[in-house]
Amino acid sequence: MKQEIKTDRAPQAIGPYSQAILTGDFIFISGQVPIDPKTGEMIVGSIKDQTKQVLENVKAVLEAAGSSLDQVVKTTVFLQDMNDFAQMNEVYASYFNPPYPARSTIQVARLPREAKIEIEAIALAGGKKGGNR
Questions:
Q1: Is the overall model pTM greater than 0.90, yes or no?
Q2: N or C: which end of the chain has fewer CB within 10 A?
Q3: Cα–Cα nearest to 27, from 53, 78, 64
């Protein structure tokens, strides 16, 4: 059985997908790009600005599911430019507590709406603890 997770505190799906799906003990969060859910506009700042918005979007979806960043077990980070890795990693580290989630980071040719970053995540359902921010 699967349940759709939906919140207006994160960008709305722009295609035939859900913001997240809760099934069993896990929440599968769709890739989030740096769109401000209040305006629907892309954050056009630095990789740090974009990473912060992406993680705020992930956090909002998790909270809508009754979970938190502390419950994330795996992320996949898609970067348009691997040269942005260190700056992305600095912001990323401020959102998670040890033990950190498992992670893959991949450079891609292009992301939706010309974003510099996209992050998808898998988290444990429930057990809300808060997170760093």
A1: yes
A2: N
A3: 64
* 3-state SS, residue 54: helix
CB atoms within 10 A of CB 16: 5
DSSP readout, 67-125?
A: --GGGEEEEEEEES-GGGHHHHHHHHHHH--SSPPEEEEEE-S--GGG-SEEEEEEEES
As a whole number of angstroms, the distance between CA 7 and CA 5 comes to 7
Q: Which of 38, 6, 2, 9 is nearest to 19 (CA)?
A: 6
Q: What is the pLDDT of residues 102-121, one digit of tens each?
A: 999 999 999 999 999 999 99
Calpha distance 59→80 (Å, rounded): 22
State both tokens at 111: 């992301």
Dump pLDDT digits (tens) for 6-22.
Answer: 999 999 988 899 999 99
Domain ranges of the chain: 3-124
- Spatial distance between the Cα atoms of 82 and 32, rounded to a whole number of angstroms: 18
* Fold topology of 3-124: 60s Ribosomal Protein L30; Chain: A; (3.30.1330)
